Amino acid sequence: MPVTQLISGALRAVTARWRTARTIRRAVVLLAVIGTMAGVAVVTDGPALADVGSQPGNLILRPGSGAAALTPTWSTTDGCPAGYRGSAVISMLTPHGRFISLISSTAYGLTKAFGGTLDGSMAALLHFAHVKNGGTLEFAVGCYTQVGGTGRYTYIQSTIVTLSSSGTSYETSSPNASSSTGQQGYTSGSASSAQQSPNHPAGALASDTSGMGSTGEAALIAGLCVLAVAAGAFVLHRRRDRSRLM
What we know:
Elements: H1 3-44, E1 55-56, E2 59-62, E3 65-67, E4 73-76, E5 87-93, E6 99-102, E7 115-117, H2 122-128, E8 136-146, E9 150-163, E10 169-173, E11 184-187, H3 214-245
Parallel strand pairs: 1-9
Antiparallel strand pairs: 2-4, 3-10, 4-7, 5-6, 5-8, 8-9, 9-10, 9-11
């Protein structure tokens, strides 16, 4: 076979491998970008408020905004529903609707509007919940079937509390009525110990107030997995390509 044909064939083979390698590299980079963007897109998406109270906006804090060092009083615009008038306590919940803690005195006489005091300043409560500057929480009134914040409960009146970007002040706003769930459940023990009760949605102090819940974590893991697979495919191709050249 003429030397020119051998050289031409070798050049075509090298060119074909080079084109294949370039195509694979582009595919690897594309997969990595898609996977990473998918994870970041979900993680950076703001948390959707769960709005567990069935009457958003019917829990009033006074003052409704001000310095985080203040300890507002609270009141409702109406009473608890029939069957849930044993007692009432305000719960603090994450943007994903997870119970954090009971944060008010126990109220009675629930056939009409009622009120009470919070257990601490807004700064202390939000610090306890690990709320970052600019973060939000939901305050919801739990109406219970028994005294002392025990028995079956349902979340009725609620409001959204937002910590300022500087962390020095707060403001309240009405939750989205269209997404309110009116969450219900059961707790045993006194109101002061409800967050340790296995029947209460608390279980333990919730930790998803940072804005990334299980969905965001899953998306991030998925993106990293795609990146790892893409990198592995690229390394494998390079090894095969080198073995052919030897």
